[in-house]
């Protein structure tokens, strides 16, 4: 028996031999119309360059036109009307309807959006037809049109029904007031008026009560009889408490 007879040498095919290595040259896609370049790195490089241009443009826009600031958030201000960004306005409008708010808030906040977005995610798997024409794919086309129409309608309704004048006033940065929050007048104001006029008398759904120029008698008359959108009989205290409140509001000034 000769030496080495019966021995076999096994090589790992995952390790290419040096003499068989080829340079990283993109494949020739010329035989496929419209696909004449490699996805990596040629196509991705162009995509990244376009994305970089848009990103730089967006950053320049944010620097030139920064977001407007409002006054410091006050969690005790119940008169503040919140408003989400434009891309969530349709969900904001949905929560205004009776079947999606109050005791049914879970339906409006979780169930309906969950079903809608879940159906959008499942649409490509339900309609797996090879056709590209919208008329040949009625299910996918109809569902997408319904989703777009619903979002557009709810967004439009939210913009049309929102009280923009009140929102503009409540978000304004106003000068600090010299309000004595330990006084009896402020305690009466807090109980009856702060919900509409703000804790700092700077206004909310109602006008601001700083520097009104009104006498205590005029303030007391408005508190009893109302004025404009303010109904009569808002203040429920005694005449002595009303006098204290009227003097407090009449003397309220900005710093």
UniProtKB/TrEMBL annotation:
Question: What UniProt keywords apply to this chain's record, in alphabetical order?
Answer: Electron transport, Heme, Iron, Membrane, Metal-binding, Transmembrane, Transmembrane helix, Transport
Q: Which residue numbers delimit the Cytochrome b/b6 C-terminal region profile domain?
A: 29-156
* InterPro entries according to UniProt: Cyt_b/b6_C, Cyt_b/b6_C_sf, Cyt_c-like_dom, Cyt_c-like_dom_sf, Cytb/b6-like_sf, Cytochrome_c550/c551-like, MenaQ_cyt_c_Rdtase_cyt_b/c-su
Task: Quote the record's binding site residues for heme c.
Answer: 193, 196-197
User: Where does the Cytochrome c domain lie?
Assistant: 180-253
Cellular localization per UniProt: Membrane
Q: Which GO terms describe its cellular component?
A: membrane
- Asked if Cell membrane is a keyword of the record, the answer is no
Pfam families assigned: Cytochrom_B_C (PF00032), Cytochrome_CBB3 (PF13442)
> Electron transport among the record's keywords?
yes
Q: What membrane topology is given?
A: Multi-pass membrane protein
- Transmembrane segments in this chain: where? 48-66, 107-126, 138-156
Q: What's an example of a GO molecular-function annotation for this chain?
A: electron transfer activity
Described by its record, this protein's role is as follows: Component of the menaquinol:cytochrome c reductase complex.
Entry's family note? Belongs to the cytochrome b family.
Q: What do we know about how this protein assembles, alone or with others?
A: The main subunits of the menaquinol:cytochrome c complex are a Rieske-type iron-sulfur protein (QcrA), a cytochrome b (QcrB) and a cytochrome c (QcrC).
The name under which this protein is listed is Menaquinol:cytochrome c reductase cytochrome c subunit
UniProt organism field: Peribacillus glennii
Taxonomic path: Bacteria, Bacillati, Bacillota, Bacilli, Bacillales
